[in-house]
Design a protein that fits this description.
Layout: E1 12-17, H1 23-30, E2 36-43, H2 46-58, E3 65-68, H3 72-78, E4 84-87, H4 91-103
Parallel strand pairs: 1-2, 1-4, 2-3
Helix pairs in contact: 1-2, 3-4
């Protein structure tokens, strides 16, 4: 991969998986970056998704699509309007989620 560069994205459309411990901070940080659109929020527990929506609202950003439940993350990864999946889950879930994301064309 030496010398490889992916094509530049003018806007990066992000979906977040895992909104428990580290996820809300990640959403908060990304909400301040120009060129970032937070398109989706996912957690096993719907109340965590609702709390993360408040971060977007406070930043003056539109609400993101919501995913929850055991397999909500798969639907997020399959979404056609997501460029990048930001995984904030426990470590044991990172590999299957990252591989699934990449198999669905996501960064």
């Amino acid at each position: 991969m030496s010398g490889y560069a992916a094509p530049k994205l003018e806007k990066v459309r992000i979906g977040f998986i895992g909104l428990g411990m580290r996820g809300p901070g990640a959403v908060q940080r990304m909400s301040h970056i120009e060129g970032v659109e937070i398109k989706a929020l996912c957690d096993k527990y719907p109340d965590r998704v609702a709390k993360a929506q408040q971060i977007l609202k406070k930043a003056g950003l539109p609400a993101a699509r919501e995913y929850s439940g055991e397999d909500g993350w798969k639907a997020l990864c399959e979404s056609q309007d997501i460029d990048l999946v930001y995984i904030c889950t426990p470590w044991s879930l990172h590999t299957p989620m990252a591989v699934y994301s990449m198999n669905n064309g996501k960064h």
